[in-house]
Each structure stands twice: as structure tokens, then as C-alpha cells.
């Protein structure tokens, strides 16, 4: 005969951390975090073997005095003697699993809401927020600049550290942690090297499982304004449209203008053109122009076309 059999919860193991329980034959329900375990021990002496049960059904292979539980259920044990005699079942130990609490990290990337021309500095703002109930840790933001952007500077972040990899043109921002509802932003200063659309994306990742990966990437599209070259001007002395005026030409550090007539002869040429050509001495008609400008990347861009002189 065996005495009344009890169960002792010896320890809960989570990420190699041990939380010990006092031994007792009467246990309160045990609530386990996701990924944790608890070791149960049968309080009996003189037994040859044991059989553990979960929800009233025998657990295959669970015949030792100790049994490690990793899932929810009602657990009990019986003892067996050499002669095959079994003792009374122990009281059940109720084990429940805690609902996993996860972080939901999101990122929004936005450029300044204003007209920007090439070779002009403007700002991007990256806003990172934790929308989940759990803390987000080891947050990494990656922003790879497209070829038509030049990095000017990165403002000091409110938290974490930033670095720029010149070879991959990637800005990395590492944030230690964000609690539920907490947000933080980063300002990146850039210049566009040419006119047109600039498409730029930033991505955020965390150590935890993110239940909503759809908000982990944000893309901004910015229209960059370039120079505007006229196709006609009227140097007739009325004070209107008197010169070959190229809008926003002054934003470039260097320029070169060449004007060619219909026979292929150069009739005007100027380095550092100041929007002052009046076609003086030339007859009305259509002329071919070649305008070169040096952009923010110190590369020459070339524009070609026709302009008509009408007096």
C-alpha cells in the first residue's frame, strides 16, 4: 500500500532562468509563459515506477518520478510497485498557458511637404512606433538611399545610434527598446542629384515575432523639380521675356551654355551663364542650344533643345 500521493512543482524554466517553488502536496494552478516549462515530481517513496496522465489519459513514456510539462492540461500521476500494484491517483495539477504578448512595430517615412528642386537639401522623417502590448527590443531601421539622392547629414536621434555605410548607401538606426504606445523619430537630410521622382523606402525589424509585418516598410515618393528651359523668347525691348531665361539655373554651382544656328555654327558660348543672352546681332529664327549644369553629385548633366527668337 502507498500513502496518498501528491505532486511537487520543482521549478519553472524560462530562458535558462529558474524560479523555484516551495514543495507542497497541494498546488495552486500553474500559469506558464509561452516557451517555459515546469518540472513536476511525485511525492511518494518505495515506488518502482510511475505513470503520468494528462487530462485523464496516460502519457506515453512518462514513467519517471519527475515529469517536465510544457503545455496546458490537468496532470496527475500514479505509482506502480514491482508486482504491478498501482496506488491511488494523485490530485490533479492544473497548468495553463499565458496568452503571448507581442509587439507590433511600424514605420512611416515622409519627406517635407514642399516643392524641392534638385541640388536643394530637404528632409525625410522616419517615425517608428510600437502598436503592440508587449515591448519591442533590438529595433533596427534600414534606409537604403537611391542613386539620385546624396546624404547630407543625419540628426542625432532621441534614442539609439545611427551609422551610414557608404558602400551600400544605407543608413542604419538601432534602437534598444520601445514600450507599448511609445514612438520615436529620426530626421535625415539629403539632396537630389537630378530632377524627377525619388522613391525611397525604409524598413524596421525587431527581435520579437511581429504579428503585422505589413507596416514594417514605408515608401515615400518625392517629385524633384529641375530647371525649366524656354522654347521661345522675345527680345523686342518691351521689358517682357527679353532674355533666354532658364528658371532655377542659379541653384547649380557651374553651367555652360552653347547656342548653335541652323548651319551648325556656334553663335554664342558662355561658362557661368547668367540668363542674359538677348540674341543680339542675330536674326529671328530657331536656334539649337546645349546647356550643361553640374549637379549635387558634382556630375555634369546635359540638356539639348531648340529655342525660337521672335522680335
Q: How would you summarize what this structure contains?
A:
The protein is mainly β and 311 residues long.
Helix content: under 10%
Structural class call reads mainly beta
Contiguous runs where pLDDT drops below 50 for at least 5 residues: 12-25
The biggest sheet amounts to: 6 strands, mixed
Distance between the termini: 122 Å
CATH architecture assignment name of the largest domain:
Sandwich
Number of β-strand runs: 24
Largest sheet strand order: 11-19-18-13-16-15
Quaternary structure annotation = single chain
CATH C-level name of the largest domain: Mainly Beta
What does this 3D model show about the protein?
This protein has 311 residues and is mostly beta strands. It folds into three domains: 6-97, Immunoglobulin-like (Sandwich); 105-225, Immunoglobulin-like, CATH 2.60.40.740; 232-309, Immunoglobulin-like, CATH 2.60.40. Helix content is 0%, strand content 51%. The protein is rod-shaped. The protein has a six-stranded mixed β-sheet, with no helix packed on it. Strand 5 (49-54) and strand 6 form a beta hairpin. The relative contact order is 0.12. The termini are far apart. The protein has no helices and 24 strands.
